[in-house]
Amino acid sequence: MPPPVTPRPGLLRAPRAPLVRRARCSAQARPFTQCHARRAAEIAPSGTREMRNIRNPEQVAKDQGQFPDEIGLLPYTFVMPARVNRPPLFAAWRDRWTLVWAQQKYRVMGLISLMLYRTKPKRRVKLQRRQIPPTAEALHLRMYNAVATADSNTLRLVCGPSLVNRLQARIHARGRAKVRWTLHRYTAPIKIMSHSALAFPTGAAGIRQAVVRVQSQQSLAHVARDGSVVPGTGHPKEIREYLVLQRVLRDGKEGPWKVWGTIEETNRM
């Protein structure tokens, strides 16, 4: 049995107030515990500072002269909280039932969005759901290694434009300081938590997103000038992340999966 997962501090402080709130973007991904948040900020990717409202795709296309690479988090995104973070089954059964009902509702809406995305003329797209977890694993590894080694070229290949800008800003802020990121092992299979799409009303274009849960044991070590590890760093921590993957459809052909960012669990509504 794997060791217990470190709970996210933000979720423990959430009040038990009315109903389930949809998943929101985290201001910063937290791949390490709170006591290591400052060190983790140098390497961890993040979602947007706040939820972006999806604009009319046609208007965005007119403004940019083409269909956009990013329009924000899709509306049917739902991330079921881990069992330890769900409302009590008996003490807060109304909240628990609302959470389960919302999960099923958004799951159905996501399936409908995928049907519209792939069945309209010139959009005969194969969803290939089984390939999402191994793809997420590869992107997860490449992204963190690229941030640790300041490899901007790899970041542009595996991350969306806005995430690349944020990660590059963190690399520049780090300066000449060297870090060593290590993935020790995955503590649970990578799981798809949400899968939905948005088909643009004109042209064979759209955007598809998948949220995957990644549980792993990883460490971040600061490296001194002589190549030794700075004492107090590099200790393995067990982390749970919710990675948002995205691919863009243009002219009936999908581009590669890229990392859009990270989000938190849907805990209230």
The chain-level mean pLDDT equals 78
Low-pLDDT segments: 6-54, 60-65
**Main pleated sheet:** 6 strands, antiparallel
SSE run: HHHHHHHEEEEEE
Radius of gyration: 19 Å
First and last CA, distance: 33 Å
The quaternary state of the protein chains shown equals single chain
Please provide a written account of the structure.
With 269 residues, this protein is an alpha+beta fold. Helix content is 30%, strand content 21%. The protein has helices spanning 9-12, 37-40, 57-64, 93-119, 132-148, 152-158, 161-174, and strands at residues 178-186, 191-199, 206-223, 237-250, 253-254, 258-262. Strands 1, 2, 3, 4, 5 and 6 form a six-stranded antiparallel sheet that branches. The longest helix has 27 residues, at 93-119. The model is unreliable at 6-54 and 60-65 (pLDDT under 50).
Summarize the structure.
The chain has 269 residues and is α+β, with helices and mostly antiparallel strands. The protein has helices at 9-12, 37-40, 57-64, 93-119, 132-148, 152-158, 161-174, and strands spanning 178-186, 191-199, 206-223, 237-250, 253-254, 258-262. It contains seven helices and six strands; from the N terminus they run H-H-H-H-H-H-H-E-E-E-E-E-E.
